[in-house]
Amino acid sequence: QTYAPKLLLLDISDISCIRDVAKEILNCYGCVDILINNASMKVKGAVQSISLELDKKIMDANYFGPITLTKAILPSMISRRTGQIVLINSIQGKIGIPFRAAYAASKHAAVGFFDCLRAEMEEFDISVSTVNPTFICSYHQPAPGNWEASIWK
What we know:
The protein is mainly alpha-helical. It is built from three helices and three strands. The chain has a three-stranded parallel beta sheet, covered by helices on one side. Keywords: NAD, NADP, Oxidoreductase, Signal.
């Protein structure tokens, strides 16, 4: 069956609204065959210059957001015993580099979660993949010393 596309806006760092969006998707389409977690937020700066508040926002967007959405969709996949879950992550989920501590930590956490999920979902014939591309070129150039401008969404 073919479905008309539906646009739903979601701030993946706003954990409180993710379950409602997932419910709306499931109500509209009945199921999700493939879930691609591709949203991300990154920040560049020395550890001592990045606030704990910003560390938490990065963790919400890059770790808690994808796992919250995945957990909301997962019961439907398990009951149907089929589905694919993909995490588009980063090479920084495997290695850390200077001035990217919050970002790398969030990406490491996501890899750990989805690696465990892959093992757990094997019995339900649900495929879980992580893609860790190397560095990408961005045209975003923040102003020097402005950490808020260094957030890439």
